[in-house]
Amino acid sequence: SGSGVSTILGELESRLMRLCWDATAPLTAREIHERLRDDHPVSPLTSTTVLNRLVRKGFLSRGRVAGRLHF
């Protein structure tokens, strides 16, 4: 029993998607992780892996900005 995006995606995926939706500009994986870790303690590698999984699923896009990958 969940609501909204949580019914389709897991908890961590949902939190990451909300962070990306709330951002006013594309963010690096590090920037996203720094915003996430306050409410959801997880390793940077785990958050990056889930971000890449969301890209593969078609929920997020990823591109280079000033030589860094942004989501």
Can you describe what's shown?
With 71 residues, the protein is mainly alpha-helical. It has three helices and two strands; from the N terminus they run H-H-H-E-E. The protein has helices at 11-22, 29-36, 44-57, and strands spanning 63-65, 68-70. The protein has a two-stranded antiparallel ribbon with strand order 1-2. Strand 1 and strand 2 (68-70) form a beta hairpin. The longest helix is centred in the last third of the chain and has 14 residues, at 44-57. The model has no long low-confidence stretch (mean pLDDT 87).
Structure characteristics:
3 helices; two-stranded antiparallel sheet; 2 strands; single chain; 71 residues; mainly alpha
Portion of residues in beta strands equals 5-15%
Can you list the strand order of the major beta sheet?
Answer: 1-2
Q: What's the pLDDT, averaged over the residues?
A: 87
What's the total number of strands?
2
Number of helices: 3
What's the gyration radius in Å?
Answer: 12 Å
**What is the approximate shape?**
globular
**Biggest sheet overview:** 2 strands, antiparallel
**N-to-C span:** 29 Å
- Structural class determined from secondary elements: mainly alpha
